[in-house]
């Protein structure tokens, strides 16, 4: 498992498995967000399987499937609400962590500087520069 901390309270990861959940809980995360649509993956790592393991560990599980190249404002709003509603650190996962980084950045537009929203994910190889115009538009309201 490769957890990449974008902030003190938000991290992203490539696909997790039910076996990873104990380590996620031990790392102090209280909420896990699935940003991966079930249609991309086999049943053993689909949202139901991961969600059961997460909830059995006493953590909150949120499903917010993000389709690559088709991120919606509903995805952005749901990610922001999950962050606001969490009582501790959040781990979001998808195939590589990229989509989880993008919806995080878009949900934080106007709350953090645009350069920061692009530079932080870039440390982990996530290229959010193409989202600069959208981030700036969202920041303006």
TrEMBL record:
InterPro entries: BLH_phosphatase-like, Prot-tyrosine_phosphatase-like. One of its GO terms (molecular function) is transferase activity. CDD domains: PTP-bact. Keywords: Transferase. Residues 2-110 form the Beta-lactamase hydrolase-like protein phosphatase-like domain. It comes from the Bacteria. NCBIfam families: TIGR01244 family sulfur transferase. This is TIGR01244 family sulfur transferase.
